[in-house]
């Protein structure tokens, strides 16, 4: 009977770990449908020849305003890098051009997700990319629809490009000359930009055959990812960009003086969070400068710049070049902020823009009357001889109001949800949970946490919930053992009193540890900007402190492994761990994060990481040898030895990927879990045991600085020791680094459960894993219901959707880990059956 029950549990758990990721993927497909790409291409016939019944001369009303266009994109250029105090110091030339009205500054609002590929699409097509493009950012596909660059190519403009090779991937047949640089080596701050700058001199002074030149610099973004926006390297990079702008501006001025009209634009594709990442919806990520040089607008410098949307750029540049506006565009032209155009041209351009946007809008009716009113007024103006000014102002206002209304409604209605698929996915997830636990005790805290996601603030500040839960548990345990310690019970021995006192001291130390570790990395949304320990350690003058923290973390890991390792392997493990720790230190030394070792030659950090992987292979060999020894003497130790090996490998890899100040979290998580294990192993149910380990994993996940914003993903971890872009490898390293704490918590839970129940390990592994998986999937199931209800919420894309992606990946990773452990249980069961 026990064997049949075991087989049943294995089948149920296998079903859960396979169906859960499929159900989540199905929900994502329904909630984030890949937007239908309308491949319609705009033509010259789309430029209107009539306004109602009045014929207009498009040859004079719609002609190129400039012969050349230069677009310089500085990746992750925040608004304050140009307009703020940083910009005035680091970019004095650009700032003086703006103040002297030689350049015109506008403020661009960017829609999330604030990552490069969707932003390039927005700039060139004038449409809002799908949110799921944030995932596709690591594997871009060519743009098949209409775009500014395609229209320019069709009109005979010759284009050249230098910089981020995402452009070449998106537009493979557009550029006549190009040289791409990869955007994925975030530790490269100089070469990635030097490869762009070296082409500028030749294109400006030797080659005169191009009409459009696009330059995309990546160095600033890379510095932000590794060091943050307040690093001294930021100012150095901005000064470098300022010199590039000055060089181009001199030539642009010369061309314009010789009537070779040229427009030079400097902008960012997205901003940068205070922590250095991007992808979210904070003001610093979604507000970027748009500087234009070479226009004939003579307005004086204003402190409150005009605000535009990033999707407005495509239509505006189309008009400047005199090409048809891309068919997919829903942006609004902002030419009146750049040029003193004749009123007839201005009105025609506004009419063309309104008519083009209305093609997408015609099924919606909210702004329809404003659109018709603008056309009627415009037609009446054309048929009036004196063209009164008050009438002109009314027409311009009507067009702008109609365009703004249509754009806002189109943005909000651009995604169509597949609600049937969403419903099926939710049903599958709920059914999985029902199969997970037969005797269910619903943890009030975990349920409340899952339900709290209905509020955006609880999503953005989720770490506060876990910190509150964790402190509450520690205080309750501390109160319980202090009460036992001071209880005057006759039956209580002196040994028990000492034991309770020791446990109380340990719990008090855990509370102190929590208070320190929660300040290691600031996270969340509202208080992420506050000073933290990591911010202090990252400063160059604090390099000694960073060195001490890293060495302390590595030393603790070596000590923990030494006291738990088998006696026969202690010396070998000590030697391996020491060399691995040296490799980890040298990796961070290459990035100038820790003190340099005298006489050690400078390297790129690649060789040290390769040595690290070689040492892991040696560790694997040791594990295989252990299995051979176990088979001969005591096969029941197979799961324990295997779990210990998995723990070793996981901790080593994570230590290599983590930021140097975050390595200290690994030994502390092991210590925290071990203390809790010793305290509760005989006092609570397995269900509560699983929940506590889950909570520990979540708490340390946020200690690491993670949040529900895509901006906190440590992109640099995906490229540790990697010499070329390999999406699977890069993605795997990113996931390992991000979800290090929850998986470490799960592996520690299984390992401690095996120690607690050494004679029925298979049943213990399957039972614990089933409970753990169910509690992981419960918040996912509830959240899918919440986000389906909130799908029209104002913050669905900026708050709810990133959280959904995090939950989806988290659950898939946990299911993968459970599957690995399930294989171990199945092998052990097969060994037991063979013995019988």
Automatic annotation (TrEMBL):
Gene Ontology cellular component list: endoplasmic reticulum membrane
GO molecular function, one term: CP2 mannose-ethanolamine phosphotransferase activity
Coiled-coil ranges per UniProt: none
Domain GPI ethanolamine phosphate transferase 2 C-terminal: 420-568, 670-818
Transmembrane intervals: 12-32, 414-433, 440-459, 465-486, 498-517, 544-560, 609-625, 637-657, 663-680, 687-704, 734-754, 775-796, 808-827
Keyword annotations of the record: Endoplasmic reticulum, Glycoprotein, GPI-anchor biosynthesis, Membrane, Transferase, Transmembrane, Transmembrane helix
One example of a Gene Ontology biological process annotation: GPI anchor biosynthetic process
Subcellular location field: Endoplasmic reticulum membrane
Membrane topology designation: Multi-pass membrane protein
Pathway membership, UniProt: Glycolipid biosynthesis; glycosylphosphatidylinositol-anchor biosynthesis
CDD domains, per database record: GPI_EPT_2
Family indicated by similarity: Belongs to the PIGG/PIGN/PIGO family. PIGG subfamily.
Name of the protein this chain belongs to: GPI ethanolamine phosphate transferase 2 C-terminal domain-containing protein
Species this protein is from: Frieseomelitta varia
């Amino acid at each position: 009977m026990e064997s049949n029950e075991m087989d049943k549990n294995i089948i149920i758990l296998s079903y859960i770990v396979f169906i859960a990721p499929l159900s989540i993927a199905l929900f994502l497909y329904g909630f984030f449908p890949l937007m239908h790409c309308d491949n319609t291409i705009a033509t010259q016939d789309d430029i209107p020849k009539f306004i109602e019944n009045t014929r207009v001369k498009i040859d004079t009303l719609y002609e190129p305003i400039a012969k050349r266009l230069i677009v310089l994109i500085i990746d992750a250029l925040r608004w304050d890098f140009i307009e703020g105090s940083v910009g005035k110091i680091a970019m004095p030339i650009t700032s003086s051009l703006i103040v002297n009205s030689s350049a015109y500054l506008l403020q661009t609002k960017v829609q999330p997700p604030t990552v490069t590929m969707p932003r390039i699409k927005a700039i060139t097509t004038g449409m809002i990319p799908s949110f799921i493009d944030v995932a596709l950012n690591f594997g871009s596909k060519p743009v098949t629809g209409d775009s500014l660059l395609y229209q320019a190519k069709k009109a005979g403009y010759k284009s050249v490009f230098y910089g981020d090779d995402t452009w070449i991937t998106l537009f493979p047949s557009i550029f006549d000359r190009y040289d791409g640089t990869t955007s994925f080596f975030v530790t490269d701050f100089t070469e990635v930009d030097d490869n762009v700058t070296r082409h500028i001199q030749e294109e400006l002074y030797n080659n005169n055959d191009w009409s459009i030149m696009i330059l995309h610099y990546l160095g600033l973004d890379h510095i932000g990812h590794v060091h943050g926006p307040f690093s001294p390297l930021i100012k150095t990079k901005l000064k470098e960009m300022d010199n590039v702008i000055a060089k181009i501006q001199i030539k642009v001025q010369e061309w314009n003086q010789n009537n070779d009209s040229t427009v030079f634009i400097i902008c960012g594709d997205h901003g940068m969070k205070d922590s250095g990442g991007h992808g979210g919806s904070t003001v610093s990520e979604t507000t970027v400068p748009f500087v234009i040089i070479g226009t004939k607008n003579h307005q004086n410098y204003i402190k409150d710049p005009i605000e535009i949307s990033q999707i407005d750029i495509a239509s505006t540049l189309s008009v400047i070049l005199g090409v048809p506006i891309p068919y997919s565009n829903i942006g609004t032209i902002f030419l009146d902020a750049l040029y003193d155009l004749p009123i007839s041209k201005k009105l025609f351009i506004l009419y063309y823009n309104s008519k083009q946007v209305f093609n997408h809008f015609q099924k919606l009716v909210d702004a329809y009357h404003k659109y018709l009113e603008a056309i009627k007024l415009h037609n009446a103006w054309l048929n009036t001889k004196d063209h009164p000014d008050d009438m002109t102002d009314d027409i311009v206002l009507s067009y702008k109001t109609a365009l703004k209304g249509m754009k806002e409604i189109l943005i909000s209605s651009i995604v169509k949800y597949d609600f049937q698929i969403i419903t099926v996915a939710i049903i599958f997830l709920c059914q999985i949970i029902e199969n997970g636990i037969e005797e269910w005790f619903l943890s009030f805290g975990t349920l409340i946490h899952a339900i709290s996601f209905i509020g955006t603030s609880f999503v953005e500040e989720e770490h506060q919930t876990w910190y509150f839960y964790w402190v509450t548990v520690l205080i309750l345990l501390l109160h319980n053992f202090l009460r036992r310690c001071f209880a005057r019970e006759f039956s209580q021995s002196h040994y028990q009193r000492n034991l309770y006192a020791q446990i109380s001291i340990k719990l008090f130390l855990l509370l102190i540890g929590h208070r320190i570790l929660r300040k290691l990395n600031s996270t969340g949304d509202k208080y992420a900007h506050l000073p933290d320990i990591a911010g202090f350690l990252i400063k160059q003058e604090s390099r000694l402190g960073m060195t001490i923290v890293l060495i302390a973390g590595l030393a603790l890991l070596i000590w923990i492994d030494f006291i738990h390792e088998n006696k026969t392997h202690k010396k070998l493990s000590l030697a391996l761990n020491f060399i691995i720790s040296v490799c980890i230190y040298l990796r961070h030394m290459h990035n100038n994060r820790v003190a340099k070792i005298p006489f050690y030659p400078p390297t790129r950090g690649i060789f040290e990481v390769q040595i690290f992987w070689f040492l892991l292979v040696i560790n694997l060999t040791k594990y295989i040898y252990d299995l051979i020894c176990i088979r001969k003497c005591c096969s029941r130790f197979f799961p324990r030895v295997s779990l210990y090996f998995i723990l070793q490998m996981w901790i080593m890899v994570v230590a290599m990927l983590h930021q140097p100040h975050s390595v200290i979290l690994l030994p502390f998580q092991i210590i925290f879990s071990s203390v809790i294990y010793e305290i509760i192993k005989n006092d609570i149910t397995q269900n509560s045991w699983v929940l506590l380990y889950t909570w520990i994993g979540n708490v340390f996940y946020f200690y690491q600085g993670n949040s529900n914003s895509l901006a906190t993903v440590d992109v640099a971890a995906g490229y540790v020791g990697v010499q070329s872009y390999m999406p699977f490898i890069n993605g795997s390293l990113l996931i390992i680094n991000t979800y290090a704490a929850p998986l470490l918590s799960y592996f520690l839970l299984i390992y401690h459960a095996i120690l607690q129940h050494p004679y029925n390990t298979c049943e213990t592994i399957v039972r614990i894993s089933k409970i753990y998986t169910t509690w992981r999937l419960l918040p996912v199931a509830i959240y899918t219901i919440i986000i389906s209800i909130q799908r029209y919420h104002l913050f669905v894309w900026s708050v709810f959707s990133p959280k959904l992606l995090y939950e989806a990946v988290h659950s898939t990773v946990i299911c993968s880990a459970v599957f690995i452990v399930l294989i171990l249980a199945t092998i052990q069961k097969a060994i037991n059956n063979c013995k019988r």
